[in-house]
Fold this sequence. Notes:
By secondary structure, the protein is mostly helical. The protein folds into five domains: 34-94; 160-226; 249-353, no CATH class; 370-437; 448-547, no CATH class. Helix content is 63%, strand content 0%. The longest helix is centred in the last third of the chain and has 35 residues, at 529-563. The protein is elongated. The termini are far apart. Residues 13-32, 94-104, 151-160, 230-246, 278-290, 354-368, 438-452 and 487-512 have low confidence and may be disordered.
Amino acid sequence: MDPSKVQQEMSNLQVTVNEQPQIEINSSIPVMPYDRLFSILIHDHPDKAYELKVLFNKCKRDEIPKNTIDLLLKDILGEELFLSASKKMQQKRSLPVTSSLHTVPYDRIFPIFFHDYPDQANELQVLFDKCKRDEISRNTFVSLLLDILGDHRQIRRPLVPYDQMFPFLFPEIQQDKANKVQALFDKYKKGEIHRNNFYARMKKIVGEELLSSASKKMCDHQLQKRNLPVTVNEQSRTQISFSLPVVPYDHMFPFLFPEIPKDKANEILALFDKYKVNEHTQISFRLPVVSYDKMFPFLFPEINKDKANEIQALFDKYKRSEMPKYDFLFLMKDIAGEEKLRSVEITMERNRLVLVNEQTRTQINSREEKLTFDQLFGVLISIIRREKRIELQASFDKYKRGEIAKHTFVPIMKGILGDQYLRSITAIAKQQKKNLLVPVNEQPRTQIISSELPFEQLFPFLISHLDPDKAIELEAFFDKYKALQRGGDGFSPPRTLTQSTQVFPVKAGRRGEIPQHTFEADMKGILGEQVLRLVIAKMKRQVENNQRRFFGHISSKSLNAAAT
C-alpha cells in the first residue's frame, strides 16, 4: 500500500474525530428515578393524576418496559409538559441535599407542623397515620402535604417543652387561667389529650399574644444561659469553665421550704424521692454542706438551755430516722428563730474563709486555733474561785463520763462563769497555745545552743520563793506530771525550758492525770506569768554563774598541771 494514501486516510480519521460534536454524547434525557418525577407531575397536573398513577404502578410491577415509559408520558401530558417536568427534576437534583424535604423523616417534621399550623393539625395527623400504615405512597404524600400547608412551608425554631414556658407565662395571666393551663398540661402528660390539640386549647385560654411573648422570653432566657458574657481580663486563673456551679436540689430545700406551705413542701419532697430512685450519680460543683450537729456549738450559746435541750432531742430523733429532714428544719426554726439560724450560718461560712494575702510566712495553718476542754480546764481551774471550781469540776467529770453532751457543756460553762469571762480565758489559753509554736524565720541562730533547765532544778528554786499554799499546790501538780513521764509509752519528751520560747516543749504522749501540753498553763495559773518569768530569769543567771565557776575552776587546775 502506498504510504501517502495511508497517511491521508489517517488524517481523515483524525478530522472526523475532531469534528464529532460533543453534545451528542449527553444528548439523551438524563436518567431519573421515576418515583421522584411522578410526584412533580401529579402535583403540577392533578387532573391527570389518575392516569399517571396507573402508569407508575404498572412501571413498578415491571408490566411496562422502561424504554416505553417516556413515550407513554408524552402521550398523556404532551412533549412540552414532559420536558418542563424533566427540567424541574434536574434542577431539584442539583440542589443541596439539605434542601430536600425527603431528607427529613416525617415523624420529626410533623411536630413542627403541628406547632405552626394548629388549625390543620387534624388533617396532618390523619395523613401521617396513613403514611405510617403505607396506605399512601410517598410520591402522593408530599403533594397532599403541600396541598394542606399551602405556600407557608417555613420550618421554625425547634420546640421547647411547655412546662419550661410556664414560669414566664403564669405571672402574666390570672390565677384561674393558670390553673386551667396546668390542668390541661397534666392531662397532656398523662396522654389524655393529643399533642396537636393541647397547643390550640392553651392558645384559646391564654391568647396568642401572651403565649408568643412568653415563648419569646423563654427563648431569650435560654440564649442568655448558653451565651454567658466572659471578660478575659477579669477571669481568674483557676476558673475552668464559664458555667455556674450546679447546686443539688436537696441543698436548696432548706431555703425553699420555709417560704412555701407545708403541703407543697411534702409534695416536693415526695417528688424528689422518686427522682432520687432514677438518679444514679450526680457529679457537680457542690457547695459545702454543714451538718446540723456542727451548727449546734454556734447556736446553743445564743439561746436558752431549755430550747437547746429541745433541739437536741429533735436532732436525736432525726438521727434515728424517726423524723424527716424538713420537719426537723421547721421545728428547729420555730424553736430558735429564723434570725439566729441565719446568723449562725453566716458565722460558720466566715470561719471557712481563708485570706491568702494576709497569711504570714510563719503561719502553717490558717484556721483558728482549737482548744480541747482539758486544755481550757487547766487554765480555768487555776484562776476561778473555789465554789465555781467545784461546780465546774463536777460538770467536767460528767462530760468525760458521757453524761453531758459536748454541745451542752459549753452553755453550762457559760452559766457558771459568764460569757465575757469565759471568752477572755479562752483567748488567753489560745495565746498560750500559739506561743508554743516557734516561727522559724524569727528564731535567732544564737539561741539554738542555749542553756537548758531541767524541771527538777527549777522546782526547788521556785518553791523557795513562793507562799506555802502555792508551793504545795505546785508540788502536787509536778508529782502528777512526773508520774505521767515515768509511765510513758515509748516517747522521750525533753523536759527542758529554753530561753527563746520560755515554754516547756513536751511532745504529746498518752493521757494521764495531767496532760503534758497543759502543764505550762497549770504553772502559770498557780504562779502568774510575771512571777514565773522572773523566777526563770533568776534561775538562768544562777546556772550560768555556776557554769562559769565550774569551768574557771577546771581551767585553773589545768594551768597548774601544765606548769608543774
